[in-house]
Amino acid sequence: MPDPTSPADVLEIVTVACLTDNYAYLVKAPGTAGRVAVVDAPEAGPIIAALEARGWQPQELLITHHHHDHVGAIAALRDRYGCTVYGPAAEADKIAAQGAPLDVELAPGETGGEGLARWQVIAVPGHTLGHIAFHYPEGAALFTADSLMALGCGRLFEGTPAMMWDSLSRLMELPEETLVYSGHEYTSGNAAFALSIDPDNAALRARAAEIAAKREKNEPTVPASLALEKATNPFLRAGSADLRAQLGLDGVEDAAVFAHIRAAKDRF
Ligand code: ZN
Ligand code: FE
Predict the structure, then answer these.
(1) The pTM is what?
(2) Which ligand minimizes its atom distance to the CA of 66?
(3) Quick one: how far is CA 237 from the chain centroid?
(4) CATH number of the structural domain spanning residue 43
(5) Longest Cα–Cα distance in the chain
């Protein structure tokens, strides 16, 4: 019997607030028997509560990078659900060193899941060297953690600006309707910075107003479409003529414009 409350053609995605400002996500394939994945493992309590509230049992845990606020609950979730833990091969040692080794080490381009819940690994180095994003091409969802973020991008703890620009450029080639789910609620601060360098961008001003309204009600500002990110996120606009002109960087290479914006954000 098909379940009338579960549309057959969309992924069900639940945003789970963890720790101070982290997000984990539950991703469920359509239908009552649909498989469930958890993206990142910041904190066991809220993730388990969100799963229990829906009667869901995850089969997969998808890890984006080695930072503790993304891997801290791996052991608790695997012990409880017996789920298979996938993560970046390039950071497997650093994750294992935190007491919870991956079950499956992923290289860029590898895929898993099936149907609407099929995902593909995209390399997005910059924040960390082995950071990966999980793209659901059929489900039109993209889990970016600390690479591309709502109106921002992650700090460059391990990689270079050129590396991050390359990563963001790869994500910008995905279909514009793709919904982007990032790893933290940093959007208000990101909006303030974005407005400071791109004050005449009407789409950005409208988005900043929406963000303020959401945060007022303590609602998450994720996800946003890739189209909206491309129109409003200053880090994705490093190649755009109008922002470049505003920054006095005409004729400068895209990656260098990106580096300039990233450095300005670090000082903001
Ligand atoms: Zn991180
Ligand atoms: Fe993080």
Answers:
(1) 0.96
(2) 1
(3) 18
(4) 3.60.15.10
(5) 62
Angle at the Cα of 144 from the Cα atoms of 138 and 145, rounded to 5 degrees: 140
Closest ligand to Cα 127: 1
C-alpha of residue 200 to centroid of ligand 2, in Å: 30
Q: CB atoms < 10 A from the CB of 241, how many?
A: 9
1 assigned to some structural domain: no
pLDDT tens track for 178-237: 999 999 999 999 999 999 999 999 999 999 999 999 999 999 999 999 999 999 999 999
By residue range, what is the domain housing residue 14? 7-267
The alpha carbons of the chain give a radius of gyration, in whole angstroms, of 18
